[in-house]
């Protein structure tokens, strides 16, 4: 038998996330991207925050990554949200983050400018 997947769906300015409160990572993240979204209007936020749509017992904080050996890896990239300060800030919500190996997050997955 199939087991239901825990899910809280949250719509943000630029993306929608299916957040798994049991695993404390996204099940999936979806967003629409077109050329106008890549025109830089704002800089990178770099301020990782718990998602304000979740209560404190459900939300992940950046402290949970400290000394873990894992990077905080965006599912919807910050670089796809340069068109709006709100979209950029929301891309740093921890519901949009998964643990990633540093070589993947800063290497293979990272697009050099």
Share of β-strand residues: 15-25%
Task: Briefly note the structural class of the backbone.
Answer: alpha+beta
**What topology, given as strand order, has the largest sheet?**
1-2-3
How many helix segments? 2
Rg, Å, rounded: 14 Å
Percent helix = 10-25%
Q: For the report, how would you describe the main beta sheet?
A: 3 strands, antiparallel
> SSE order in H/E notation?
EEEEHEH
Distance between the termini: 47 Å
The geometry reads as globular
Query: Which whole number gives the mean pLDDT?
Result: 90
Query: Could you give the count of β-strands?
Result: 5
pLDDT < 50 runs, ≥5 residues? none
Topology overview:
Blueprint: E1 8-11, E2 16-20, E3 25-30, E4 71-74, H1 85-90, E5 97-100, H2 102-108
Structure explained in plain terms:
This protein has 113 residues and is of the alpha+beta class. It is built from two helices and five strands; from the N terminus they run E-E-E-E-H-E-H. The protein has helices at 85-90, 102-108; strands spanning 8-11, 16-20, 25-30, 71-74, 97-100. It has a three-stranded antiparallel β-sheet, with no helix packed on it. The model has no long low-confidence stretch (mean pLDDT 90).
